User: What shape does this take?
Amino acid sequence: MKYGSLLAVLAASCLGGELQVPNPSFEDAAGEGALGWKWWSRTKAGSAVRTADDHHSLGHSMCIRHDGPRDWALSSEGRFPAKPGECYLASAWAKVKKGTIELAVVALSKGKTLDWSIGSASAGADDKWVKLEALAEVPQDCDQVYIRFVGQGDTLAFVDDMGLQPAERPKPVERPKVEGYAKERVREKLGRGLVAVTAPDGKAHISWRLLDADPPTLAFDLYRSAPNEAPRKLNEQPIVKATDFADAVAPQAAECTYILREAGKTDDLAKTVAKPQYVSFRLDGNHTFQKMGIADLDGDGRYDFVLKQPNTNIDPYAGYWKRTETPYKLEAYDADGKFLWRHDLGWAIETGIWYSPYVVYDLDGDGKAEVAAKTGEGDPRDADGRVQSGPECLTVLDGMTGKPRAQVDWPSREPFMKRPNGYNYASRNQLGVAYLDGRTPCLIVERGTYNLIVVVAYEFHDGKLRELWRWSNEKERRTYWGQGAHWMHAADVDADGRDEMVLGSFVLDDNGSALWSTGLGHPDHLYIGDLNPERPGLEIYFGIEPGGPRNKMCMVDAKTGQILWGINRQTRHVHASGLCSDIDPRYPGAECYSADTDEKKQFAWGLLHTAKGEVIEQDEIKGFGPRTVYWDADPQRELLHSGRLRKFRGGELAPKIEGTYVATADVLGDWREEIITTLPGEMRIYTTTVPATDRRPCLMQDPLYRLDVAMAAMGYYQVPMLSYDLASRKP
Assistant: This one.
């Protein structure tokens, strides 16, 4: 839903008239300051002085002066009773000569700060009086509110005529449904993904894909050929139970080729050369890589790879930021490891995950994937190395050549730069794919995470990008403010055949309307899928970063956002990727793990829950959560930590995984997943050699899983999830 402007709220009927903010026009003095107002700064520098030099209405205003990089605040000492669900409109006039200022409504609970901003409005340097209006919605547990001004860095501003009044929620406005170019759902045409590697026992393990369109009676024959030998059939009976095979008598020194055919047929379905232990690709250089997009670039039914290198990451936050040393490059390799092209993102894109999102997907439905990326032009760096100006674009590159095919402007940084810490917040960018009409793969562009968020949807067709809709949380209820995540999910949460966008603690409907928000705050991790198979529909598990007294580890209904269960325990800062996978066969559905931090942002404590919210007593999973992977023959995922695979409450599994972990995905062989790592000058794909006990369709053909894999090329990594529960679905 889209909400009207704050001016419309002002015109709405109020719930009891304007509240009396103490000394709202600063006419009553208290020394150099104003009665009922308190100045604070991190470094004890700066001042807020009552002045008659410039004012908006009566005879005085407050002049705020601050020098230096740290933060400051000018707060009203007036406190107003509030109840959860109520709305208030704060207003003020401001003239900003230097820096930025923000009007914020603060929520209290029993005298302690619950949320430093449940509603805000900001102004940048303009040297004229402007009116600020901030709509605030009172959150759960809040019993009082007050208003204040905040900012950071060098500031010179005048503020005057403060106001606070009850308000009604703005009315929703309907949006039209998206209708893209596709007449039917665009899907990859996958081959069999045949792969053969040497198992720890010396046998060759061969596996291949079962496709979701295969008839249940489909059977296979497998052949092996060695140099100077004719192909030899390996199976005595047609292979129907699983889609893998153990070749116990493969020549150890010979280079064997394996050939897959439909049982009783002579046409080859796939061929592959056996590899020792894992699949290895040599890179075009001795670098490692940070991210990887997986898609079919040439239309041959095999997955190709687009890497982002070097493997470095700069965070925009002032305490973590550092100057870029070497710009990012995107480089493509085909399914055989052949280097295809390299695209230099240049100095306009700083080397951090949040500056450089990209995805690889067949956007125009021609059977060959494109590369969509955030790009810039030239060298717009400031003297210190930050990029705060210059063009920013969404660019579509040809998947086979890396050459640009289409380009539009990226959502502007300007609204973010008008706020305190504008560079940090403007530098949070993401890019995803969703089937907004159920048929057409659409690009989803997002800017912002921690306060303002802007989202734009496009389709790519006939070589052009067409805007489908645009959304911002500026005019939404406050529960949509600062609810962004480090990741995107696209999923049909309401079962209408169209994807919604799960962008954090809130969801946008397929037409760009706000669907729901928990208002719990920014999640450091979130997972969506059929997490609890004993209830209908999809669920979302959240680990919420901002501390609070309850529900900062919780599961919600994906259709409505209703909290199904949550912890009743104070948290400080839930951190990192957590875990959400079926790892324990004793309980149906996915187990969920999150961990809280101490004052030094180190591990403090963690909880593992069942899909129903019951705590599982255990001491195996510690820290901030391991990765998970479908590796052995059962429908539970295994744990991957520090290069070691093991079962929850079980033993260790082979092999030892070497290199820096990059991704988990079902890219080769049967339905079990591969582990992809990077080493200097090399990409490795580890695939299981555990004999399968059943056969299941390729996981990449599940819509939710496939889009999770696509969006793993950007943002902080989370393992892909399924729209169904693997353990309760019969093979």
Notes: Confidence is low (pLDDT under 50) at residues 1-16. The CA atoms of residues 211 and 697 lie 5 Å apart. The two ends are 40 Å apart (CA to CA). The chain has four helices and 53 strands.
